Amino acid sequence: MWQGVFSAYRGKWLLVTLKDGTEILGYPDFYSDDFQKRELFVASATIKFKDGKKEDIEGPGILLTEKSDIKHIQFLN
Question: Alpha helices, DSSP H only, in the chain?
């Protein structure tokens, strides 16, 4: 499922919600081949913290590893 979804919706922006309520908006540039490792590189990323503060990521993006505790991922139009 992990690889299939990213392959099917390649080119779509996404909103990643972490278990602590932090949201990351960006473009899924790379993702792991192994669904058990669930790593995702989000390019052109903006982070929205629980307190509502937003911050653009400087540089190409942010790597979310399995330790990031991804709660869910929304693919956007």
Answer: 2-8
In order of their start, the domains of the chain are: 2-75 (2.30.30.100)
Q: CB-based burial of residue 8 (10 Å sphere; 0-12 exposed, 13-18 middle, 19+ buried)? A: exposed
List, run by run, the mean pLDDT of 10-residue segments along the chain (77 residues).
82 94 95 84 96 95 94 94
Evaluate the CA torsion angle 36, 16, 54, 30 in order and state its sign.
positive
What's this model's pTM, rounded to 2 decimal places? 0.88
Q: What is the CB-side half-sphere exposure of residue 76 using CA atoms within 13 A?
A: 9
